[in-house]
Every structure is written in structure tokens, then in C-alpha cells.
From TrEMBL:
Pfam families: NAD_binding_8. PANTHER family: PROTOPORPHYRINOGEN OXIDASE (PTHR42923). The keyword Transferase does not apply. One of its GO terms (molecular function) is oxidoreductase activity. Keywords: Membrane, Transmembrane, Transmembrane helix. This is Amine oxidase domain-containing protein. The chain crosses the membrane at residues 437-456. SUPFAM superfamilies: Nucleotide-binding domain.
Length: 457
């Protein structure tokens, strides 16, 4: 029998399996997808990559760095510097703001990190309305919220918004050197030790009294069950299980899931067989708020027939295209691909017709709208504890509120796993502490206070 069944082979589940297996625990790692990586995995269609992207990685991902070190792998073996930084985004933001708006932002930033600040549910929309921010600024903030963390101006909290700036301002952004199935997760899988058994294409459909039930009808048993699914997927699992109140009140869970679920993104990956020289562009306003990364400007594509790859994501599925007079939710698959490419050509006018365009295989049509089964958690200031009614069943992830990062990312998922391992298994995993903008601000403030005291005395 296994010591632990871990449901979900994303960053959180992989981190749990990595450290528990190092301590001689037998792990069965399950995922509904064929391979590991969760939202960060690469899927291939006709040999070409597609992803839930575009993605960025930041060098304050200290838990990831520690795991890579365990695998005798350096950060720079996997990642290469991204051309843009958090500073570029902040510069764009300040160019839009008036002096008054800069003042209210600075005042709120200080307030948000003061000991007396307790309302972590206060949204960017509430902040904008209270301070009469300009419509232009609110539109930019909304686009920024959709880009950085699957929220909108209505759902992203002021605390999370400032945390993204505060925690990342002093660090650099990176892109993978290789597609993740040939780089990061290939190395990770190669370092699975004999204590880890991974089974892909294994969807868990219910939690039973003495185990779990797979979609294929097979039942599995272990001493402990660790579930690392995001809230929407967890609700679906609990709904089909023997005890709907396993996590607590079922109606409360439904409400929690409703307020903390990711906005729907529609990723499309465009491929060309030839190499095209394309400049890196950070932001560009389009009708559907598309974001994109020219992956081939960063990746070594030795293994791929595609020599130019652009990863694109539609961030606003309810926004109208002025060209076809449709929202993404009104479009067929073909219309999505064609209209997104048209918007991409506004950015790169000389871009030739692609050889293949791939809609993310996890995107599907339901009730006249597009759904992405790669769901995630949005920090709205509300959390859900990992403990359940049963001492051997835990639900672990960013939603617990125990991560080092205050927004959803690979690192927030991995650090949530480390918190659980230290708390419940006494593993004493130590990570370096990242330096934040607030740290620098307080050091400078303290310095001036000391200088003033010395001058007075």
C-alpha cells in the first residue's frame, strides 16, 4: 500500500511527491492529463507544442530553485532572461496616472502593508471608485489584472495588486529555454526516485469511504490522501463523493469556489515552419485583450519542426471585436483562430500566414461559451484550510493562504506544499527569504529616522 496518494501532478503535487519520496514515503501520483506539470505542462498536437500560456517565471521562485538544486540543475540551465520586466509595466502605469493618482496609490500601498490593514478583500474596483480614478486608468488596471493573474478590476484585491509589484519589483522575469516537456518537466520526471509511481490519464471522479474511484472504475487505496486540485475541480470531485461536507459546509464551499475562480482564458499557439525575425513587444491594445510571447525568440527548438512559435491568450472572452462584431464566446473555433491572428497582425503587420494554429486542447465549448478546464485559484482575500473532516485527507494549494507569494503562480503552489510538509510532516524545509520593495522602503525609512535622531541629539 502507498503511504500517500497525491491527486494532481502540477507544481504543488510534484513538490509534495518530491520531498515525501526523499523521506522514503511511497507515493502514487495521479493526474487526469497524460503528463506532469499542471497548467505549466506542454501538450503536443501533430508534434507541435501548445500550452496554457503565455507563461513567465521569476527568479524569486526560491522553492523551485531549491527543487532544481536537488536535481543538480541550475536556474539558468532551464530559463533565459525575458526582455521585459515589472519596471516596464510600472512605467506604463505611471505614464497614465496624474500626480493625484500617484499620491493615492502611494498612500494605499503604505496602508496595505501597515499592521492595522486587515481588509484583504478590498478590490481594485472599490479603490478606483473611492478615489475617482480616471476611466483610462481603470481600463489599464483591468487589462493588467487580466494579464498578471486571471482576475479583473472587480475581483483582484488591492492587496494582491500591490503584492505583485512589491514581491517582483527587484527580480527578473524569465522564459523557458526549451518547451517544458523537453526542459523543466523532462528533468523533473527523470529525477523521480523509486518511491514515486506516476500514472497519467487517471481522472479521480469521487472520494470513497476507504479510497478513491477513478473514471475507469478502478478503486485505489492509501494511508493518506493529498489533493492538490484547484477549487473548481475540487468542487466537482466533492460533489460526486460520498460526503459532500468533507471539506466543511458544502454550500460555503460552492460560494468560495464561485468568488475565487479564474477568468476563462483561451490560449492559441501559432506555428511557422520557417524562422521569422519578430521584435519582442510587451503590450498592445486589441479588442480581445490578447497577450502574447514569441516563444521562438527565447526557446531552442532543436526538437521541433516549428521554427517560429507565438503563444497567444485571449484574456477577455466578453469583449467585442469591432472587425467581426463578435465576442470570443460568440465565435466558432475557426473564427477564434482567424480573428486572433488578425489582431496579432495589427502588432506584426508583415506576419505571413501561419502553417498551423492550435487551440489549447483543454478549451472546449459548453452552453454557448468557451470553457478552459485548466482552472486555478484567484486570491480574493478568502482562503480555505487544508484540513478536512478526516485526518488522513488534506486539500493543499494556494487557496490555503500559506504561500510565500500573494498571487497565483508556480511558486505560490510549491511554497504551499512546503508549508504543509513543514507543518504536518516536520520536514523543516528551509527556503531563502525574498527581498521585497517594502523591505527596501522600510530600511530607507529606518535609516532616515536614525539620522534624524542623531541630528537632534
Amino acid at each position: 500500500m502507498y503511504d500517500y496518494i497525491v491527486i494532481g501532478a502540477g507544481p504543488c503535487g510534484l513538490t509534495l511527491a518530491h520531498y515525501l519520496s526523499k523521506h522514503n514515503k511511497k507515493i502514487l501520483l495521479l493526474d487526469m492529463n497524460e503528463d506532469i506539470g499542471g497548467c505549466h505542462r506542454v501538450k503536443r498536437v501533430n508534434g507541435r507544442i501548445t500550452e496554457h500560456g503565455p507563461r513567465v517565471y521569476i527568479d524569486n521562485y526560491l522553492t523551485l530553485k531549491n527543487v532544481l538544486k536537488d536535481m543538480n540543475t541550475d536556474w539558468t540551465d532551464i530559463f533565459t532572461p525575458y526582455q521585459f520586466s515589472m519596471n516596464d509595466t510600472m512605467k506604463e502605469l505611471f505614464e497614465i496616472m496624474t500626480l493625484k493618482e500617484i499620491y493615492v496609490f502611494a498612500k494605499q500601498f503604505i496602508k496595505s502593508y501597515s499592521p492595522s490593514f486587515i481588509d484583504k478583500t478590498y478590490t481594485m474596483k472599490q479603490f478606483s471608485d473611492t478615489n475617482n480614478l480616471s476611466i483610462q486608468l481603470q481600463i489599464f488596471i483591468d487589462k493588467l489584472c487580466r494579464t498578471v493573474d486571471g482576475a479583473s478590476i472587480e475581483t483582484m484585491t488591492i492587496y494582491e495588486f500591490f503584492s505583485i509589484f512589491n514581491q517582483n519589483f527587484l527580480y527578473n522575469i524569465y522564459q523557458p529555454k526549451l518547451p517544458n516537456d523537453k526542459g523543466l518537466f523532462k528533468i523533473w520526471k527523470e529525477h523521480f526516485n523509486k518511491n514515486i509511481t506516476f500514472i497519467g490519464n487517471s481522472k479521480v471522479v469521487s472520494i470513497e469511504k476507504k479510497g478513491i474511484l477513478l473514471e475507469n472504475g478502478k478503486k485505489l487505496y492509501s494511508k493518506n490522501l493529498l489533493i492538490t486540485l484547484p477549487p473548481v475541480s475540487m468542487l466537482n470531485l466533492v460533489t460526486n463523493s460520498f460526503d459532500k461536507n468533507i471539506l466543511g459546509n458544502y454550500d460555503d464551499l460552492k460560494e468560495f469556489v464561485n468568488v475565487s475562480k479564474y477568468l476563462t482564458y483561451i490560449p492559441i499557439t501559432y506555428h511557422w515552419n520557417n524562422k521569422i525575425d519578430l521584435p519582442n513587444i510587451n503590450h498592445y491594445n486589441t479588442d480581445w485583450d490578447i497577450v502574447f510571447v514569441v516563444l521562438s525568440n527565447y526557446m531552442e527548438l532543436f526538437y521541433d519542426k516549428s521554427k517560429t512559435i507565438i503563444s497567444v491568450s485571449i484574456k477577455n472572452v466578453n469583449s467585442m471585436s469591432k472587425h467581426i462584431n463578435k465576442t470570443p464566446n460568440n465565435c466558432t473555433k475557426e473564427e477564434l483562430i482567424d480573428e486572433t491572428f488578425r489582431q496579432l497582425k495589427l502588432i506584426y503587420p508583415y506576419l505571413q500566414k501561419y502553417d498551423e494554429a492550435i487551440l489549447d486542447p483543454n478549451v472546449y465549448r459548453n452552453n454557448n461559451e468557451w470553457i478552459n478546464s485548466d482552472d486555478a485559484f484567484i486570491n480574493t482575500g478568502k482562503t480555505w484550510k487544508y484540513q478536512t473532516k478526516y485526518p488522513n485527507v488534506h486539500w493543499i494549494g494556494t487557496h490555503n493562504g500559506n504561500s510565500t507569494h500573494s498571487y497565483t503562480s508556480m511558486e505560490s503552489a510549491m511554497s504551499s506544499a512546503v508549508y504543509w510538509l513543514n507543518k504536518e510532516c516536520d520536514l523543516n524545509i528551509v527556503s531563502d527569504k525574498m527581498t521585497t520593495f517594502w523591505d527596501i522602503f522600510t530600511y530607507i525609512l529606518l535609516f532616515f529616522i536614525i539620522i534624524c535622531i542623531l541630528c537632534i541629539t
